[in-house]
Design brief:
This protein is α/β, with parallel strands linked by helices and 383 residues long. It has 2 domains: 2-180 and 358-374, Glycogen Phosphorylase B (Rossmann fold), CATH 3.40.50; 193-353, Glycogen Phosphorylase B (Rossmann fold, 3-Layer(aba) Sandwich), CATH 3.40.50. It has helices at residues 15-29, 43-46, 64-82, 109-114, 119-122, 126-147, 157-165, 218-225, 244-250, 266-272, 287-295, 325-337, 339-353, 358-374, and strands spanning 2-6, 9-10, 33-38, 40-41, 51-55, 88-92, 102-105, 151-154, 174-176, 203-208, 231-236, 257-261, 275-278, 299-302, 316-319. The strands form 3 sheets. It has a 7-stranded parallel β-sheet with strand order 5-3-1-6-7-8-9, sandwiched between helices. A 6-stranded parallel β-sheet has the order 12-11-10-13-14-15, with helices on both faces. A two-stranded parallel ribbon has the order 2-4.
Length: 383
């Protein structure tokens, strides 16, 4: 089969890009030929003899809004040129103006626009107005793209619920395939904390995410930490332009919170921690939660993260309101009170994560691709 993937990135180190990478790798293992329309492609795939890459360069355009439009226009032109060579087309959200066979949804702009946590609700500024315009336009374009596809993949039941309720997509058109995790990179291991300049006796929680975004909700973690002196916090993420280092200092947490910056050795730092805290205000999946589980970390998270569907109360403490710093502090105190139970929770988290390898996820995608190809003879309804 000749299949075509239309997406911005296909590489490790990127959530959606990693999903594309693993699915394409599995397609190649099964002997298929793959056309890739993307701006970025990993070297090993670019050099594969059965990969044809049509690169769309978008650097130089000043905003993501413009870059996405340029990408979609050029991708549509390539799909028109290649249509007689392609058996099946797989896209990610709005990436082209033409029809597709499978559309994989990792973020629902309709749901984000109505969220009380959208930046336009929290504050009125030039930046939040731009994000409002960006989200509103993508909501319309995303809905158009989903009307012009045969099958929709949601990365969680949460996303499926949002697609039905906010984007008005029929449930029978939606398949749920959750993201996977690299079990060879993220696994329980012993780390000598002294080499990382950490205390062997101290209890460490970890947070990882975009430190410029209030959506990830580090502010509530810092507020909760004030009431939990037993726990120190390791924060992974680029601090450039972030308000959180100053916030930690203002709360008197300067000695208990370590901002480690962007790290490529995340699995090592996760292995040095005792638990993972991630009360995101809105997260369609949250791959980082699954990675923490795979390392063997118990999780404290909000119910707004799609990945909590994979967890049980034996592996995690889930809070309903991500802004409730008292509830989060109580959850952290419960973790600090019983290290033996914390260890058992981590073991259960690892067991659950092992059910969601990248290879298992990719196999589900390829089965769906094959089923969709068999039914492609049925014409799509006119939009």
């Amino acid at each position: 089969m000749n299949m075509c993937f239309v997406t911005h990135k296909v590489r490790k180190g990127d959530g959606q890009g990693r999903v594309n990478y693993e699915v394409i790798l599995e397609a190649l293992r099964q002997g298929h030929y793959v056309y890739i329309i993307a701006s970025e492609l990993s070297d090993e795939l670019a050099q594969h003899e059965r990969v044809i890459w049509k690169k769309i360069a978008v650097e130089g355009w000043p905003t993501e809004l413009l870059r996405n439009q340029i990408f979609a226009i050029r991708a549509s032109l390539w799909l028109t040129i290649l249509r007689n060579r392609i058996d099946l087309t797989i896209v990610n959200g709005f990436t082209a103006y033409v029809r597709s066979d499978i559309n994989c949804i990792h973020f629902v702009h309709s749901a984000w626009l109505r969220s009380k946590y959208h930046p336009i609700v929290e504050r009125k500024s030039l930046s939040s107005f731009y994000q409002y315009i960006y989200t509103r336009l993508n909501r319309s374009l995303e809905r158009m793209a989903m009307k012009r596809t045969r099958t929709i993949v949601a990365v969680s039941e949460q996303v499926k619920h949002e697609l039905k309720g906010d984007a008005h997509i029929e449930g029978n058109r939606i398949a749920v395939i959750r993201n996977g995790v690299d079990l060879e990179e993220f696994y329980p291991r012993h780390v000598d904390r002294r080499e990382l300049h950490l205390s062997e006796q101290q209890l460490y929680a970890m947070f990882a995410g975009d430190l410029r975004s209030s959506r990830k909700n580090l502010d509530t973690v810092l507020k909760a930490l004030v009431s939990v002196p037993e726990i120190h916090l390791l924060v992974l993420g680029n601090t450039k332009g972030s308000l959180y280092p100053q916030m930690a200092a203002d709360l008197g947490l300067g000695e208990r919170v370590q901002f480690l910056g962007y790290r490529t050795d995340m699995a090592t730092w996760m292995s040095a921690a005792d638990l993972f805290v991630f009360p995101s205000r809105y997260e369609p999946f949250a791959l980082v939660l699954l990675e923490a589980m795979a390392v063997g970390l118990p999780v404290v998270a909000s119910s707004n993260c799609g990945a909590v569907e994979l967890l049980t109360n034996k592996a995690a403490i889930i809070i309903n309101d991500p802004d409730d710093s008292d509830a989060l502090a109580d959850a952290l105190l419960r973790c600090a009170a019983d290290r033996r139970q914390l260890k058992q929770m981590g073991e259960e988290a690892r067991r659950l994560a092992c059910q969601h390898s990248w290879s298992a996820m990719a196999a589900q995608y390829l089965q769906l691709i094959q089923e969709t190809a068999l039914h492609k003879a049925v014409p799509l309804p006119e939009s």
